[in-house]
Amino acid sequence: MQDAVDRSSPKGKRDYAILLLAARLGLRTSDVCGLKFREIDWEHNRISIIQEKTGEPLDLPLLPEVGEAVIDYIKYGRPVSVLPYIFLNVNSPYDRLNRSTLHSIVCQYMRRAGITFEKERHHGPHALRHSLAALLLEKKTPLPVISEVLGHRNTESTRYYLRIDINSMKQCMLDVPSVDPHFYGKGGEADV
Question: Structure pTM?
Answer without folding.
Answer: 0.69
